[in-house]
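Question (not urgent): is this output format expected?
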Amino acid sequence: MRRHLVLAIALLAGACSAFPERAESPTQAAERRAQAPRPAYNLAGYPPAARAGYVDGCESAKRSEYGHKDESRMANDPQYAMGWNDGYSICSRR
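Got this back:
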């Protein structure tokens, strides 16, 4: 029984050291986020600007890596602003 315990401890210790944790640089993180697919929402029938705003607003409310607020579009594109505000308010209630 004692051999089994020693073997189990040795296997667990070896497994922990087999996968060292590597820190991701900010550049690597940005590249990974740029290549990842954006979250999908069923917004059929809405203009593209409103869809983009909704996704940005909803993901901002969820505090995900995709969430951001495009300030220039908020000021100059009323459809984007409407979508962002709707997405943020709906997703922040969940």
